[in-house]
Amino acid sequence: MNNRLVILIELLFVVGLYFVYIQPTYSDTIVPLNAQITATEAAQIAAKQYTSKESQLQNQFNQISTANRTRLDQFLPATAHSVHFLYDLNTLAANAGFTLSKFSANTQTPATAQNGRAATAPSVQSFTVDLSGTGSYQSFRTFLTGLEHSLRLIDVQSIKVTAGTASGSSANKNAAQNATYSMTLKVYWLGDSSHV
Predict the structure, then answer these.
(1) Does position 188 have pLDDT exceeding 70, yes or no?
(2) Model confidence over 141-182: pLDDT tens digits?
(3) What is residue 194's predicted lDDT score, i.e. its pLDDT?
(4) How many structural domains compose the chain?
(5) β-strand partners of 128
(6) N or C: which end of the chain has fewer CB within 10 A?
(7) Residue 84 domain-assigned?
(8) In whole angstroms, how far apart are CA 194 and each of 50, 79, 86, 124, 186?
């Protein structure tokens, strides 16, 4: 009988120890640590996948020839280069026989994500250029063709044509062939969100 009493007391001690010490320690300390370990392991797996994808994209980028990288930078440059762009516009107009009379560049606008919030990664940004000039229809078409074949990404947003006035003399007939063209261009560039 004495042995049974000792076993019963030991059993009650073990059950009491479980409920008083082991269970609270397990649920308060070990379970959160296991959850933290699981989250850390998931983050490490995600970081490895990210690093793998980053190195894969870097290898693909390194396989692009230098000439194509230069073309890509000209197509979507890393900065606005608005002064350089306006110089290129003036050169293009002069080569087409089209005379630019005035132009203005408006402020850069950051592109927004699909949901309307500003993008946090490097994003495509734009600035608008309002310009007008005079010339024949053929010189204007040559100017527009030059814009179309430009290495920069440009949208012609609007065009307004004002015809020249006609009179009897031959000098005025040349003026009648020339028209005034006003247009708005949207020029894109790849911006860094830290500069927005």
Answers:
(1) yes
(2) 999 999 988 878 889 999 999 987 655 455 555 555 789 999
(3) 42
(4) 2
(5) 186
(6) N
(7) yes
(8) 22, 13, 25, 13, 22
> Which pLDDT does position 145 carry in this prediction?
93
Contact partners, residue 149, CB within 8 Å, separation at least 6:
none
Percent of the chain with pLDDT over 90: 17
Tokens standing for 74?
A: 């000209």
Token output for 10:
């030991």
Same domain, 29 and 125: no
Residue 144 in any domain: the answer is: yes
The answer on pLDDT for 12 being more than 90 is no
In a 10 Å sphere around its CB, with 0-12 CB exposed, 13-18 middle and 19+ buried, how is residue 179 labelled? middle
Q: Which of 137, 135, 110, 130 is nearest to 186 (CA)?
A: 130
CA distance linking residue 68 with residue 72, whole number of Å = 6
CB atoms closer than 10 angstroms to residue 147: 19
Question: Which residues make beta-bridge pairs with 186?
Answer: 128, 155
